[in-house]
Amino acid sequence: MYKEEDFLQLSGIQHFSYCRRQWALICLEVEWEENDRTFEGRLLHEKAHDPFIKETRNNYFISRAMPVHSYTLGLSGECDVVIFYENKNGINIIGKTGKYLPVPVEYKKGKPKNSIDDIVQLGAQAICLEEMLFCSIPYGYLYYGETHHREKVEIDQNLKNHISNLCNEMHEYAKKRYVPHVRRNKGCNACSLKNHCFPEIYHKESVNKYIARYTEDMKNA
Predict the structure, then answer these.
(1) Is the Cβ–Cβ distance between 143 and 149 less than 8 Å?
(2) What is d(CA 127, CA 132) in angstroms, rounded to the nearest whole number?
(3) What is the pLDDT of residues 201-211, one digit of tens each?
(4) Closest Cα partner for 127 from 161, 152, 173?
(5) Which residue of 8, 156, 208, 211 has the fewest C-beta atoms within 10 A of its own C-beta?
(6) Distance between CA atoms of 147 and 150, rounded to whole angstroms?
(7) 21 and 179 Cβ atoms separated by less than 8 Å
(8) How far lies 197's CA from each of 31, 117, 173, in Å?
(9) Which CATH class is domain 4-181?
């Protein structure tokens, strides 16, 4: 169990799963830079988070930008959308008749990925909702802006265990203020933080050439 003052950003678990260094630069070093991808993603989330958009049907209602937290994971943040479906195995909601099952929906720009990075963020939201509302959430959805389609994600115990391990590792990094070293991969060029992560000089010349050039400049100064 974590204390509130030790809570980390829930959205950070997606960055941490994708790249430990990216997460550390954003959450520990407070580095950020916008690019086309992050801008489009932000617009998509702003629309999903609009609390003034109300939607109610006979068998469900929607909550947007819903604040959530988990003491077991040590996370807090917001769910883009939570759909409360009427379900006899659900929970009571103040002001509503019947019982409802909360189902988180996380909005993402682009299209479904082969990685688990988006899934762990959705799963963490489900764990937060389960802990806050005393219920069991068997599934959630990932909505992708490029395909305009929702992907159903099963929230099973294996996923929960993986999320718990990620969160424990995140808290260890945060406690030590540890920023991992650069490990380049094919996703680096699309990352908005690439100029913060490895300045241009490091992938244009070797370290030895840089030292030699710097030494020569100091001699001529």
Answers:
(1) yes
(2) 9
(3) 444 445 565 55
(4) 161
(5) 208
(6) 8
(7) yes
(8) 9, 20, 17
(9) alpha beta
